[in-house]
Amino acid sequence: MAKEKKQVEQITDMEVDFAKWYTDVCTKAELIDYTSTKGMFILRPYGYAIWENIQKELDARFKETGHVNVAMPMLIPESLLQKEKDHVEGFAPECAWVTHGGSEKLEERLCVRPTSETLFCDHWSHIVHSWRDLPLLYNQWCSVLRWEKTSRPFLRHREFLWQEGHTLHATAEEAIAETEQQLETYADLCENVLAMPVVRGQKTDKEKFAGAERTYTIECMMHDRKALQGGTSHYFGDGFAKAFDISYTDKENKLQAPHETSWGLSTRIIGGLIMTHGDNRGLVLPPRIAPTQAVVIPVAMHKEGVLAAAEGLYERLKTAGIRVKIDDSEQSMGWKAAEYEMKGVPLRVEIGPKDMEKEQCCICRRDSGEKVFVPLTELETEVVRLLEEVHKGLYERAAKNLADHTYPAFSLEEAKQIQEEKGGFIKTMWCGELQCELDMKEKAGMTSRCIPFVQEHLADTCPICGKPAKHMIYWGVAY
Amino acid sequence: MAKEKKQVEQITDMEVDFAKWYTDVCTKAELIDYTSTKGMFILRPYGYAIWENIQKELDARFKETGHVNVAMPMLIPESLLQKEKDHVEGFAPECAWVTHGGSEKLEERLCVRPTSETLFCDHWSHIVHSWRDLPLLYNQWCSVLRWEKTSRPFLRHREFLWQEGHTLHATAEEAIAETEQQLETYADLCENVLAMPVVRGQKTDKEKFAGAERTYTIECMMHDRKALQGGTSHYFGDGFAKAFDISYTDKENKLQAPHETSWGLSTRIIGGLIMTHGDNRGLVLPPRIAPTQAVVIPVAMHKEGVLAAAEGLYERLKTAGIRVKIDDSEQSMGWKAAEYEMKGVPLRVEIGPKDMEKEQCCICRRDSGEKVFVPLTELETEVVRLLEEVHKGLYERAAKNLADHTYPAFSLEEAKQIQEEKGGFIKTMWCGELQCELDMKEKAGMTSRCIPFVQEHLADTCPICGKPAKHMIYWGVAY
After folding, report:
1. What residues are paired with B142 via a beta bridge?
2. For A100, which of B70, B74, B99 is closest by C-beta distance?
């Protein structure tokens, strides 16, 4: 994929135009490409490799906690989608409809799944009979369609890849525990793999998922201080079960309605990754998710022994379990440096004739640009140590951004002013009423992000209406 | 998922009704379930786990040979699908069409992908410029839609899961080598993982993929002696490249059209697996693909020490890397034996008070029903050895079925008679003309399966028309 890459491609500075910077990174780092299908994107090999690593991390966590994978149909009959009222109201406006199969018009049109609660419930109504059948802990890796008017790489696709977990439990307590556990799995992925700090909390009724009783969320802060919802986990109560006629006999032989959850995380998180860690030289990937953790580059490649020395380093790192590649192409050193900076490879390992004399190599960190000379005897231990440091450094920088730009506010005007002048998350008390959310949206341009699990008592009253406060809430401008 | 499983479920004998036996196995082994979306199925956890193992095996092989995964859109604009004439003619009759997004009618209708050659070519036309960009070795794991009139678990779904590889090469030689290599990868999966012997060969022009110059295939024989196409690999020449305006400048700076391949293997192979190895007690899974390779069952579970002993065996096998589970439920021994037979688990490891006294356990093979008593000290080595033996035994039994039911024939009438009386693969010479294929179909009800790579000289002339023979060909009745 080298094409005309003799010259280094430039990207827009994020301070000049953040949106343009973002799109530049997505395309020039070869994560994504536009297609002839409006609103849909290709995940190119490098972008998809990031998603594969996210899949591997999450899938292992799901399986450790007893979840199993399944595959449901991609099409949903309209009548099935309509069984749960709140749900269909939420999704019908953005469904894509299959109306013809081959040359025939279908008797009933079919929706390309925007999410699969209805399919899981339909299946469960066939297979659930007794308390022995519960819990059912299912997950599905697939793509879903939402017919959005506008699109943006990773952040808003008409089709996006995700996983959707769907579980069914005998009791509300169990279902709520599952909802919480899965949110924590997402938070763990973000913090410990993607180096993205999160705020854990609950969505307001206005912002919760269509048909859910409760939606939990993790909220991340981007470089531009906007919010990105990282993953959500929903508790449905027994609403879906009743709508789909799912019941089980309990140990006392009484008929009961089971309790349902669902939870999802999508390729959107890759957009979050880019906007959390990227810089003006391109993508910056946290080491635990990077498809290539280190690239070995021979310096003055045609000098005797250099290529063999570089290959030796490559083999040693590969043996040590590092995801490593070697670039022995004819491109210039300048081109190679820029290329792997653009691609966000955490470490560049260079070796040339002078290094060989000194029995060392030079390792350059993508995050800080710092160069260190490492004795060849310490190659593996130093690479492992540096990868850990990069992860830690990226996490800390993002955590500082989040902490530095989270502000308390005590009136709607103050909230508005902070958002306009500084951006970030604004925390205020809140009465719990929809009207105050609508006011905040209309007058300050912010939506509620979540009622954080970690509450603070900032005041006794809601700063918007003056009524007694029920919670502390986070506001922000969201992707 | 225990529901009313106090009694053992019965399945139809395959000698009584093979089709019914097959469907019984698919549903009672909990591989699949019917859905409210006509012609579409759910892959239940146990069925999907088999597919996950197939994915793992194939994906590793693809990556070892330099292939990378991508994600293309699931919808194809009609105009894009129409760019390659033979291709659209082949697929248009079975496309499902999206005509509405939200409440709006689309300007151009979109086909749910039946296969993605057109999308890959469209993308490549943007990114391929120079010989340096080649080869491109891509693969995609996804589902595709084909609007079939009838459906059957695994064998014929309107939606099925598969992988589709798509590659682009500078020369025809390279592309043909890729086509052959990938067919061999499928053959390796079948023979060495799924214990399914295959016949490797080339499809006739009549049976090749829409738009391809050549289609290679592996053909498997089922218990009922019908053929099942296991996987196919296509060489397209430069037809698609020209239709999609893909070109590259070679080392002499001349503009050239690159050569394309594609290759696919789907969940259909699970149907093949069932019909190759299953028996009247249910599914029989080859150990290398079985989600559970061994199940540990405590006998007289409530006697002192039995449960702990069984758990000990479970832990030891798990540590040894065996995919093992333990069934310490309250179900009867009879129920448990029948359940794991139905599910095709290769080995049942039982331990009770008498075994404990003798410091042994009893291992029962699913394939042969044979029971062996194994000293506890030899547990791991014996389990590993038995799993290998089961694989070998299954492969040999299937290979014998294939060999015993492959017959030469020297006239159309003889071919017809053998098929009617015995079933199987009939090998004859063939002139290479379409008319003789049509005659064989009309008069003997058989399609050509392949021109096998390993040729024999049975006669000088085509037994159908009497003209000089070009090849030996296999005929059969296919799923």
Report:
1. B162
2. B99
Quote the CA–CA distance of B271 and B58 in Å, as a whole number: 17
Q: What is the mean pLDDT of chain A?
A: 96
Considering chain B, what is the average pLDDT of its residues?
A: 96
Query: What's the pTM value of the predicted model, to 2 decimals?
Result: 0.96
Interface test with A, best of B32, B35, B167 (most A CBs within 10 A): B35
H-helix or E-strand spanning residue B162: strand B159-169
Best mutation site among A48, A117, A140 for testing chain B: the one with the most B CBs within 10 Å?
Answer: A48
Amino acid letter, residue A161? L
- B395's tokens: 């492969």
Q: CA-to-CA distance for B362 and B373, rounded, in angstroms?
A: 5
User: Does B397 score more than 60 pLDDT?
Assistant: yes
| pLDDT tens digits for range A108-153 | 999 999 999 999 999 999 999 999 999 999 999 999 999 999 999 9
Rounded Cα–Cα distance for residues B364 and B351 (Å): 11
Task: Give A228's contacts (C-beta < 8 A, 6+ positions apart).
Answer: A155, A219, A220, A221, A222, A268, A271, A272, A275, A478, A479
Q: Which domains does chain B have, with CATH numbers?
A: 18-277 (3.30.930.10), 294-386 (3.40.50.800), 406-476 (3.30.110.30)
Closest CA to A247 of A121, A84, A129: A129
- Is the predicted pLDDT of residue A38 greater than 90, yes or no? yes
Check whether B424 has a pLDDT greater than 50.
Answer: yes
pLDDT of residue A232 exceeding 70: yes
Percent of the residues in chain A that have a pLDDT greater than 90, as a whole number: 95
Ramachandran angles phi, psi of A42, nearest 5°: -95, 130
| β-strands B136-145, B68-69 pairing | parallel
